[in-house]
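Write out this protein's structure.
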Amino acid sequence: MEYGNSTEVTEFVLLGLSQTREVQLSLFMFFFLFYVIILPGNVLIILTIHWDHHLDSPMYFFLANLAFLDLCYCFVTPPKMLVHFFSHHKVISYKGCITQLFFLHFLGGSEINLLMGMAFDRYLAICKPLHYSTMVNKGFCWALVGASWAGGFIHSIIQVILIVHLPFCGPNELDNFFCDITQLVKLACTNTYEIEFVMFVNSGVITLVCFLLLLISYGALLVRLRAGSSHGKSKVASTCVTHIIIVFVMFGPAIYIYCRPFRNFPMDKVVAVFHTVVFPLVNPTIYTLRNREILSAMKRMLGRYGLWRRKWKCVQM
């Protein structure tokens, strides 16, 4: 078949996390329970921020968008992984593989851009407090979110264009539970050195640079807070520390995966699980547990829901 237009490989075999049946069932139960417990909580965070007027500020607007991105991210790889725990023929079609790869990098890139935008928002709130309310309006917030999604799309489409022009004509086994560039590019029937370098820059170098910029930014903001007045210092510092935790949680696995040669390492699957399954669900939860305003708003929302249910039962009686 023609190079760049089609491929002899029509599907890829995913070896998954384990070949042992008992381990597969245990992993399924763990991830299923994890989703059942954490996923509704993330949805509640988004609904709470949307409906509670006390949380009508740019910081919570960005948090709701971050939770939404994480929610979408959790539907890219885990559903197929859970299905494959009960399947003996663990395969994914070529188109399905490319689609999975696209959304993985689209949502991941968008989230990195959004974290950069949230850092800029905190900079304006701390360093330009008198002008913050006029500068960071609804239009500005939507523009920042739109730019984050656009940046994620550009990042992802570059990866997809590089992959679809590769010929796959031989081995089709991926030693993982999802499709990603680090393993897929190694199955190509051609020299991929130049393409790997472009992918390394597009994913690894950019991720590392953003990580360092975020750490420097939040470090500088914490230093400025320490030197400034004590009014509201504790709350703002707590918010910055929470952002730093999220930065480490998200960027750590990404740097491990993409900031090195595209080869298999013993810890790859473990890091991939945290990167694609665990951390996206945990990120909004970390924000919530460290933020009293969101916790209070969630209690108010659940209280109103309970009151509405009692009234509805009275009407039915």
